[in-house]
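Sample 3 of the quickstart, ligand copper (II) ion:
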Amino acid sequence: MNKKVRILSLVIMGFLAVASCGKKDPKVGEPAEVNQTVNDSETPSETVDNVLVIEGNDQMQFNKTELKALAGKPIKLTLKHVGKIPKEAMGHNLVILQEGTDEAAFAAKAINAKDTDYIPASEKASIVAHTKLLGGGEEDTIEFTIDKKGTYNFLCTFPGHVAMMKGTLIVE
Ligand SMILES: [Cu+2]
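Result:
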């Protein structure tokens, strides 16, 4: 992180601390979202340990649109459904696609794969890794390794969710 950016994020964090009127003390050492938007080139815990955690909620949202990991090293990814709605109505999974996969076409096929929790068997070759389909309060951890550096799209394949629930996994 260069000095200018660090100072800028400190200024913004300071401003936010004042703006929040002491309702919640900003925790030192906890990565602030502000930091990530000001400088998206550093996410130390993720790139050092290859441990990724992402949440899905009852508002049909992931809490992150970008994940980062290192190539050639096992990645441990946990998806947590932090909502309360059962999976039949608000199911979430996280499916990582091979580069070059047509995401819209994949999602369209997934909608018809209810019996396999919206993982289309015919498209297995396009899938790098995927979690189980989760309902509120559930979580799933998967481990996989990506050897090739690149940008991989991920999405939730529950019907209709791809419009809101998608992002990219950057492998460096
Ligand atoms: Cu979902």
